[in-house]
């Protein structure tokens, strides 16, 4: 397996844009794009327009016929709701700690795997497995066999250290969810960083060694500099997925105890499908999207840099 | 296989130790999955014990019980929605990626970023209207509807991935074919498709994994007829109480297809997970 980064995107064809083809030719070029574009717009953009519409109406599924225009009342509810602020804070805490921790572990594991040792293929296979296991199944596995206060394996393994029948999910709910997410996402980070490590040119490392750089100096100034792009990419893509975490919370803590682990996706789910307050849920959705757009603008610029700069072609 | 990093600076002992650390980490990460697999072959009384039961005579009674409880339809629904959406994604994404790479439309860059931006939009933002629209069209709890949602979910990823594979086709090859008088369909079927075949496989794998493991849309948009495997697993939280062995057996079955596919296609995994940016 040679790990290189895709050929730089220099061959991409922006220059062609300079001389726009004739209208007919242009449509022939657009034709293959249309089906994908239409489906994407129909299933992501059109629903959002509806979300906007619902967000200014009061609509409760349990009381049909009560649908009426309420202006910005739903938004007012959202912004005065301390539960919403709590869910927003939880989302930030959950996402950032899970992503950062799995990246740190991912870098460490990738460094370990980036050297020859007996059974490296097997170790790599074992390490990627948590990422492949269905998240819902993984969450239930942790909730029961691993974290149960009395029969769970974690407490059994920690019993020599004086940990008794500790109920992790209710004593340390956020840490529990983060732990499960880190277990799941470390392999993802590791794979991306490992690909980065293996694309590092041996000559540069050799040169650093000849110049008398120690292991730590080489790692800090040569390897990490080379890995920067890969780490950024991993953090970015990881965040896109982790911010939407739903399965683990639904299965392990149901957002609790109290509201301790309710993140925005779970909060909106509760509003819509347990509270049946569709208007409010829609307003929440709009607020979340607005926030996402702000963040995504930065993220997209970062992606754009990552993919267009030499070394990591799109 | 890639070359290992330059000969480690130290003697043999540190190298041996580092290998040992790697093995320990690998076993730690893998252990919960192994435990799930083992628990699925236990009697219920052996599944929750303190201390844990390590030695036991395997039984298939849990697997029999699961299938007796109509697990099969959930598996069929999962397989249908995953395969159907993957096929649809490929059918839509290949032409789209082509129109964004080899024969680019004007403003292809904007279109490309539009696709990826839809993946950043939280699923929760569109779930309310999707639910209501599906309800009014009578396609709630419908496997085709779920497949379409999965198609939209995976399409951006597939477009980005496939585009990166198309960009790798040397321009000269296509140029030469054109000079030889090969028509566009011939170029596409004889040159482009064979050259991106591994890329197609990698893309299909990633789409399959995401669709198979998806839970949020499944639990929101399906009820009984179209419910997928993860929805089946939810039943264990409420009704089944402490049936850990049975839960483990069901979880093992649920996880197995993707785990095996991922193991087999490890090399394609990196490329897919990074939207084609990183070659594994």
UniProtKB/TrEMBL annotation, chain A:
Where in or outside the cell it occurs: the entry states: Cell membrane
The family database entries (CDD domains) matched by this protein are listed as:
TM_PBP2 (cd06261)
Keyword Calcium included in the entry's annotation: no
Gene3D superfamilies of this UniProt entry? MetI-like
- Residue ranges of domain ABC transmembrane type-1 in the record: 88-299
Q: List the transmembrane segments.
A: 31-54, 92-113, 125-142, 174-197, 230-252, 281-303
- Topology within the bilayer: Multi-pass membrane protein
State the UniProt keywords alphabetically: Cell membrane, Membrane, Transmembrane, Transmembrane helix, Transport
| Domain of life according to the entry | Bacteria
Q: Biological process GO terms, please? A: transmembrane transport
Please note every region of biased composition (Low complexity). 1-11
Transmembrane as a keyword of this entry, yes or no, is yes
Family note: Belongs to the binding-protein-dependent transport system permease family.
Q: What is this protein called?
A: Sugar ABC transporter permease
Upper lineage is:
Bacteria, Bacillati, Actinomycetota, Actinomycetes, Streptosporangiales
Automatic annotation (TrEMBL), chain B:
Q: Which UniProt keywords apply?
A: Cell membrane, Membrane, Transmembrane, Transmembrane helix, Transport
Task: Give the matching InterPro entries.
Answer: BP-dep_ABC_trans_perm, MetI-like, MetI-like_sf
Q: Does the keyword Cell division apply?
A: no
GO aspect biological process, one term: transmembrane transport
Q: How does this protein sit in the membrane?
A: Multi-pass membrane protein
As for subcellular location, the record says: Cell membrane
What is the first-listed, main subcellular location in coarse terms? membrane
Q: Which Gene3D superfamilies match?
A: MetI-like (1.10.3720.10)
Q: What is this protein called?
A: Sugar ABC transporter permease
Q: Which organism is it from?
A: Actinomadura rubrobrunea
């Amino acid at each position: 397996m040679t790990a290189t980064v895709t050929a730089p995107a220099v061959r991409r064809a922006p220059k062609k844009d300079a001389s726009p083809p004739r209208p007919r030719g242009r449509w022939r070029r657009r034709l293959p794009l249309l089906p994908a574009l239409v489906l994407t717009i129909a299933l992501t953009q059109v629903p959002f327009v509806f979300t906007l519409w619902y967000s200014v109406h009061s609509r409760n599924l349990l009381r049909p016929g009560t649908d009426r225009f309420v202006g910005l009342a739903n938004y007012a509810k959202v912004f005065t709701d301390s539960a919403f602020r709590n869910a927003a804070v939880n989302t930030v805490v959950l996402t950032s700690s899970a992503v950062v921790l799995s990246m740190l572990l991912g870098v460490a594991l990738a460094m370990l795997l980036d050297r020859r040792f007996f059974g490296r293929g097997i170790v790599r296979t074992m390490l990627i497995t948590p990422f492949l296991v269905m998240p819902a199944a993984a969450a239930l596995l942790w909730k029961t066999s691993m974290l149960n206060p009395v029969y769970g394996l974690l407490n059994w393994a920690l019993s020599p250290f004086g940990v008794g029948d500790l109920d992790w999910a209710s004593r340390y709910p956020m840490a529990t969810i983060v732990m499960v997410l880190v277990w799941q996402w470390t392999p993802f980070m590791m794979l991306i960083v490992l690909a980065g490590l293996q694309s590092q040119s041996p000559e540069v490392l050799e040169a650093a060694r000849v110049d008398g750089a120690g292991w730590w100096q080489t790692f800090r100034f040569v390897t990490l500099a080379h890995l920067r792009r890969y780490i950024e990419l991993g953090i970015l893509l990881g965040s896109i997925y982790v911010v939407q975490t739903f399965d683990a919370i639904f299965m392990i803590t149901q957002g609790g105890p109290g509201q301790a682990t309710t993140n925005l996706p779970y909060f909106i789910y509760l509003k819509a499908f347990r509270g049946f307050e569709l208007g409010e849920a829609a307003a929440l959705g709009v607020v979340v999207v607005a926030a996402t757009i702000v963040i995504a603008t930065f993220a997209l610029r970062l992606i754009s840099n990552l993919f267009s700069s030499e070394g990591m072609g799109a | 296989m890639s070359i290992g990093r330059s000969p480690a600076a130290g003697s043999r002992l540190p190298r041996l130790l580092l290998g040992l650390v790697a093995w320990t980490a690998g076993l730690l990460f893998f252990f919960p999955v192994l435990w799930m697999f083992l628990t699925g072959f236990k009697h219920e009384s052996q599944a929750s014990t303190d201390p844990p039961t390590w030695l036991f005579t395997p039984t298939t009674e849990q697997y029999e019980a699961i299938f007796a409880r109509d697990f099969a339809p959930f598996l069929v629904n999962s397989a249908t929605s995953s395969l159907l959406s993957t096929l649809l994604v490929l059918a839509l994404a290949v032409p789209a990626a082509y129109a964004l790479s080899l024969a680019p439309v004007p403003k292809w860059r904007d279109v490309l970023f539009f696709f990826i931006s839809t993946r950043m939009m939280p699923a929760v933002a569109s779930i309310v209207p999707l639910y209501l629209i599906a309800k009014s069209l009578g396609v709630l709890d419908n496997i085709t509807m779920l497949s379409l949602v999965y198609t939209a979910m995976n399409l951006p990823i597939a477009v980005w991935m496939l585009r990166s594979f198309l960009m790798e086709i040397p321009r000269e090859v296509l140029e030469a074919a054109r000079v030889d008088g090969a028509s566009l369909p011939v170029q596409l079927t004889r040159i482009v498709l064979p050259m991106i075949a591994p890329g197609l496989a990698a893309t299909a794998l990633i789409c399959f994994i995401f669709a198979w493991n998806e839970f949020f849309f499944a639990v929101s948009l399906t009820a009984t007829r179209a419910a997928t495997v993860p929805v089946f697993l939810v039943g264990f939280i409420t009704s089944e109480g402490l049936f850990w062995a049975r839960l483990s057996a069901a979880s093992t079955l649920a996880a197995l297809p993707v785990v095996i596919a991922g193991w087999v296609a490890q090399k394609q995994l990196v490329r897919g997970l990074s939207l084609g940016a990183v070659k594994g």
